[in-house]
Design brief:
The protein is an alpha/beta fold and 317 residues long. It folds into 2 domains: 207 residues, Periplasmic binding protein-like II (D-Maltodextrin-Binding Protein, domain 2), CATH 3.40.190; 98 residues, 3-Layer(aba) Sandwich (D-Maltodextrin-Binding Protein, domain 2). It has 14 helices and 11 strands. The chain has a 6-stranded mixed sheet with strand order 2-1-3-10-4-11, with helices on both faces. It has a 5-stranded mixed sheet with strand order 7-6-8-5-9, sandwiched between helices. Strand 6, helix 5 and strand 7 form a beta-alpha-beta unit. Helix 2 packs across helix 10 and helix 9 crosses helix 14. The longest helix has 23 residues. It is globular.
Amino acid sequence: MMHSSQIFWATLLLLLRPALAALKIANSLEVLEWTPELIAKEDYYNGTVSIVNGGIPSLFSDPSVDIGANSETQLLRQYASHKNLRTVLTATEVYYRIVANKKNGIEKLEDLQGKRIGAFPSTSSEYFVQKLLQTVGLEPSNYTIVPGGACLKEPCGPDTFPEMLKRGAIDAIGMWEPSVQLGVEAIGADAIIFEQTIYREIYVLATTAEKLADPAKRREIVAFVAAIVKAEDVFRIDPERVIDRVAAAVGTNATLLREVWPVHRWTARNPLDIVDVMLEEDKYVASADNRTAMSRDVLEPLVDRTLLADALKLEEN
């Protein structure tokens, strides 16, 4: 039990601590990956946070944005022209899946030769499909990528991947959740699911070198990252505490979320292999963007590991 003098000094320290200013964070609000930020904002961060639709590009189109979040493909795309970009945290890693229609003669990955695969061109979705199918000798010329739309819950629109799979406009879907799971449910017993460990989306939080060099702004970002670490512990250990709120935030339902939750690695960290992953992946992004791929020496400054280390120290105190 704290004595009255200890309570006095603890209260005084809190009163003297500089108040946290407002943070502005830009995410694609139609993906599950951003939702640990919501729980961090509502349950663990002591300052003010606004979360708006956008992503890493918002850091350069809107100076009031402090943090942008996207997959690693979009991080690479922006870093190519903005060398002051810094990733400070991998918030979520997602092992994408492919669902295919067995009625179309698909029993193994090799059977996707000559098939139509629903995916988003020039994104982590298409890159994942390429990486996985290369493991069975299939190159992009051996199948057709068909663009469409994501779906968050039934009923899915006619131009979304689950509905396209159901009516036979495509033979398979390869991307993030929950569109893949909705595709599974759309064709029922005809669905075959290809799980994998070749590729995982690395969903990152990024800011700029200038914001990291600003002591006040850095302190705010450190505090918010510390709050994300706490939120991710709940996502990983006790997801039932947050599933309903996450479902409401992205406009889906909790039953569907429970199906896809295990595909996500809810662990706030900086992967040791992130530069290796991006070095290989940038060959794809560079080709899509008609530029030269970046070297390791160019890519290494993109990853800032100091901010997470500071956030973890803050958690210890």
